[in-house]
Here is the input.
Amino acid sequence: MHILATWLFQIRTTNEDDLRRGRTSIVAALIMIGLAILALPISAISTNPISSIATLAIGIIAYLISIITIRAGFINAGGLILINFVTLPILVPIALNTLSNGSVTLPFYLALSLLVAGIILRPPFIWIVLTVNLVGLFIVWNIAGYNPFANMQTLSLSTAALFLQVSTAVFTFVGGQITATILREARQLREEARQSAAQLATLNATLEAQVTERTAALQQALHELEQRATEQARLLAENEQQRQAIRELSVPVLPVRETTLVMPLVGALDTARLADMQQQALEQIARTNARDLFIDVTGVPVIDTQVARGLIQVVEAARLMGTRVTLVGIRPEVAQTLVTLGIDLRSIRTFSTLQTALGEGGRR
Here is the structure.
């Protein structure tokens, strides 16, 4: 049943309003076919069964033709066929005068065709249906020999039937125009919403592309930063190694004999170099088990109180480790400065030159 309904309502049109009206027309045609089928038993027992059944059969065929026409995409043509066969069963009995007082009461039912037209046709077609109804009504009155203006009663009924036709057409037209306006605005709003959705989708796609691009750029920047950090760490390590080498070279400890070390000092001695000197001396003494350490201060331009105290600390620390420290290379001006400062170096062996000190050490 669902497959049949789907097939039946397949209309060859892309216009949404035409599609709506076409499906409504098919529903109306199916209702009319159903009513005609239900009317067949009644027609069989009427005064003129052959004519009634033939009329119903023609109507059913016309409704089927209307459905076929609508499914082919001709919405207005199919709707007009449907309305014509709603109107004809009303006009034909008036022309044949087969019903008692039919010429008086049947015109009121023509409003049904206008109501159906308002549902399945565009609003301007309502005036065409009204014109067809009025012209057809006067024609069948003339064929039936009926004078709607013969007396006051017929005049009142005929005028009421005509007024009903016109007023129904007016109200149906106004209602159709309002519905068409609402549907047009709804379609416009839907189109704007569709365009907004399309723009939003475009913006989302652009945003996703930008996010992807910036994420990739950020990842690249992070990768470069990691590489730079690694390179910086490597450079810092190399720098530390170089600084350590420089410290070792600035206060070198040289083994000249199996148990004798020489530490030649060159340049000014500050707190850092004094600390390095003490560290280097003690490390080398511990490593070599040296018995003598000769500190050559020939290249030291100035020996002040701070430097003298540093030298004394080295002497005392080495003595605790069992090593004798000898200070060599004190120049005359340095000796005069030490005497002026009142620095006592009597606890330290001193020699004027390294060669003399080594010779004396060799004879010990």
Notes: The chain has two domains: 2-196, 251-363.
